[in-house]
Amino acid sequence: MQNPTPEIPESRIAQFKKIPFKEVPNPAFIIHTDLLKANGQILKGIREKTGAKILLAQKGFSCFSTYPILREFLDGTSSSGVNEALLAKEHFGKEIHVYSPAFTSKDVVQLASFCDTIIFNSMQQLAMGITATEGQRRPEFGLRINPQFSTGNNDLYNPCTMDSRLGTIRATLEKNLKDCSNTSLDSISGLHFHSLCEEDADALEQTALAFETKFKDIITHCKWLNFGGGHHITRPNYDIKRLCEIIEYFQKKYKLTVYLEPGEAVALHTGILNAKVLDILETENTHNAILNISATCHMPDILEMPYRPNILNAFPANEKAHTYRLGGLSCLAGDTIGDYSFEKPLKINDTLQFLDMSHYTMVKTSTFNGVPLPAICLFDQSNGLKLVRSFTYQDYRDRLS
Predict the structure, then answer these.
(1) pLDDT at site 183
(2) What is the pLDDT of residue 199?
(3) CB-based contact 19:53 (threshold 8 Å)
(4) Could you tell me which of 223, 233, 224, 225 has the C-alpha nearest to residue 208?
(5) What is the CATH number of domain 271-357+365-398?
(6) Which of 16, 96, 173, 199 has its CA 20 to 30 A from that of 109?
């Protein structure tokens, strides 16, 4: 299992330090688009070498102001429902694939009018989709399967547990085919599985071979296979050569196209959350620095995984002279980000820059407690800083009733 906060290359740290943080709204997410392009080049290289297709998984990164950049490097998007698919239609274009654990017939009718591929979670859902699209445009259909094999160790992010609701296992598929005489696999163009979370190509290889063992007879009839996301492709030292070999093995053996749909890897090591110290509260054992951001509102994976994000010019607790516990602005007692040490004492109004904050942040923010949402900015070396969105009381109010 990879470290969820892999070390950022010094070359990227140097790029981040060029951002004029004093000019940036606070709090704010900042996406360094030069680094986003660098990730895109890595993904494009895999596409060109193997002929595989790579989609942006919007569930991890949906900052559509960057879609004109990403469109140059990727084949399209994968979506988790109608809203993400509509965002892709409006702002990204190219191929639009969508999967959800369940659709309504109304969802399917709407999606079928503009999507390229709809992937269903079960044979019942597939049968519903076939009925719903009779007499109208029908995109390619796929089926998500659960190979019941996983290399991860955190069940919160493991969709391939034995009793997972995500995907159809082989035994259930066989039962469905026997029980439903009007439903067959002839109507699907491909199979989809997703089992990885921030993992290397060796994990994909193990899962893909387990998948092949269980579903080989169906794979032979497929036009495409979707290997899902969770591939940490743009992480330093990721085994790209091995990934390409896995893709080429399946494409050559079965004469089909392999799809990958990374989300985190597209935006890995491209973003910063700019924050500010509002107060410092001392207890008997701890110096609490209270910030103008929140783990639960702005970086929920910190609490869910959990993990400790890196900060520019900060160090592990007690490594330097001054250690603080960084806390969020909400009333949640556990809204703490972690313990860090600094070479100099923190002061009120000091700014802190949290690293690797493009993915699974903006797509998961909330306004719990009325905590303000951070602004969203873009930065590149040629054009400097650009504010693309700021949020006000009206944004908080309009989400309620």
Answers:
(1) 61
(2) 83
(3) no
(4) 225
(5) 2.40.37.10
(6) 173
